[in-house]
Design brief:
mainly alpha, three-stranded antiparallel beta sheet
Length: about 500
């Protein structure tokens, strides 16, 4: 005898495990649509995109970055990302019966987030790297202002999977789901399934409940966004030595034990990207000022700029470096041209000698002499060309750059700073880790690499190691090699 269902089940009319699917198949077909005709999935994708854009605009404005490039990027990155997600998510020629155009049906189920990241990321990098040269803003900065916000879009977009009955995990019981989820969610956490291997469509199929992986990922993405935006990005402020302990009178604030307030006339004027905002108060007819902790760090490092003398000095170093490089490039081209001219003249000379001769032995000797003379010409230029090629080799030139002195000038107190690029790398590490964990809860048929669990795990491991390397590179290598005067990184140079 069946146990009576509780009242909430009667009201929501939940399918029961083992029920035949005839009574529920129509509901399953209608769940992905609003009002019976509007697909719900693209609505959540749109809302997710809006969430990413809003968060990105806020971060752009906080960094004083022009919004024009972000506006143009919308028409480049978003279409590339959506199409990439659709193509990789639906890429199965045999299943699609060679209907390649169906790969672009982004409103239908089957969107691979990695396709969106790869295609959208590549398009975004190409655009922002180009614009970086115009505005003198590091590509790292653009990435940090945009990439972590993708977590918001992913968290919102995953709810579209609920209505499509997808991104579900391993089989579970109805009772365990009802213990912590409302019935309107539980009512969509089922697949139609036949437990028999090789079952046919004519065989009995039944309702089977699954874990809500979409929900796990959505919650994890929100938590990860909060950790990256409010914790990781501010680790420098938390764990660095404090400027108010080095210069107590210059940083009056709530945690400064010596100076909570300081008279305006006693504060020195520091070169900053924008005027520092102080809190004002009148004490005994005297105006005194105080800083917030956030503004204290802005004054000490993030908004502090080089003075005109330093800008001139480092600017001249950059000009001289670029000038020497261009000089070597021109010299290399000139030497190669001289070698080409000498060889051409030698060939012309021997061509005339050979033309006058009828004896094969002399012609053979002339050709041998020609090859020897050409070799001698090349040998005479060889060492010079090799040295110039080393001096102008793109990889060598790029790797040999050194901006330690410039970095020190902008951070003379050696504060611990989370550099540009760390936030972006943290997004990759965090999201890959979340997906790596959730991948273990999927069935073999729903893995990124279907039915290849070990290879699937290896793929995630390799991507995660790459992201970890990117974090190390952006924190400990890039800041000391490729900084440029007046470019925007984690601060304005």
């Amino acid at each position: 005898m069946k146990k009576p269902q509780i009242m909430i089940n009667l009201l929501s009319n939940l399918p029961q495990p083992g029920d035949p699917i005839e009574d529920w198949i129509e509901q399953g077909r209608n769940d992905p649509f609003l009002f019976g005709w509007m697909p719900i999935y693209p609505i959540f994708i749109f809302l997710g995109v809006v969430g990413v854009l809003v968060a990105s605009v806020i971060k752009f404005r906080m960094r004083k970055i022009p919004l024009y490039d972000l506006g143009i990027a919308i028409f480049i990155v978003i279409p590339a990302g959506i199409l990439g997600a659709s193509v990789l998510g639906k890429f199965n020629i045999l299943y699609n019966n060679w209907k390649i155009w169906e790969l672009f049906y982004f409103w239908q189920p089957g969107m691979a987030i990695f396709g969106g990241l790869i295609f959208g990321g590549a398009a975004g990098f190409a655009w922002f790297h180009k614009r970086a040269q115009y505005y003198q803003i590091s590509t790292w900065v653009y990435a940090d202002c945009i990439l972590p916000n993708v977590l918001i879009g992913q968290a919102i977009g995953r709810w579209g999977n609920l209505f499509n009955h997808e991104i579900l995990g391993r089989p579970t019981s109805l009772e365990s789901l009802q213990k912590w989820l409302p019935d309107w969610i539980v009512n969509k956490l089922w697949y139609v399934q036949n437990p028999n291997v090789g079952a046919l469509e004519t065989d009995p199929w039944f309702i089977e409940y699954r874990e809500p992986l979409f929900l796990y990922e959505s919650i994890a993405n929100i938590v990860l966004f909060i950790l990256i935006t409010f914790l990781i990005a501010n680790l420098g402020r938390m764990f660095s030595k404090k400027p108010w302990k080095i210069y107590p009178s210059e940083f009056p604030n709530i945690v400064n034990k010596q100076y909570r307030w300081v008279e305006k006339e006693k504060l020195k004027v520091w070169e900053t990207q924008r005027p520092i905002v102080y809190k004002k108060r009148i004490i005994e007819d005297r105006e005194v000022l105080k800083l917030s902790l956030w503004e204290s760090w802005n004054k000490a490092y993030y908004l502090k700029t080089l003075d005109n003398k330093q800008i001139t000095y480092f600017g001249e170093l950059e000009i001289n470096y670029e000038g020497n490089l261009q000089r070597d490039i021109k010299k290399l081209e000139k030497v190669k041209q001289q070698q080409f001219n000498d060889i051409s003249k030698t060939k012309e000379k021997f061509a005339k000698l050979i033309k006058k001769e009828n004896q094969k032995s002399k012609i053979k000797n002339y050709k041998k002499d020609l090859n020897n003379e050409i070799k001698a010409i090349k040998d005479s230029f060889k060492s010079e060309i090799q040295e110039l090629r080393k001096a102008t080799n793109w990889w060598r030139v790029t790797w040999n750059q050194d901006s330690k002195e410039l970095y020190k000038a902008n951070n003379p107190e050696n504060y611990f700073v989370i550099h540009s690029g760390v936030v972006s790398a943290s997004y990759l590490i965090g999201y890959l880790t979340v997906r790596w964990v959730l991948e273990t809860r999927r069935t073999d048929a729903e893995l990124v690499l279907k039915h290849l669990f070990v290879l699937d795990m290896v793929l995630f491991a390799l991507f995660t190691i790459f992201a970890l390397g990117l974090l190390i590179f952006s924190q400990f290598i890039a800041p000391y090699k490729w900084r440029k005067v007046n470019w925007l990184y984690e601060k304005s140079y």
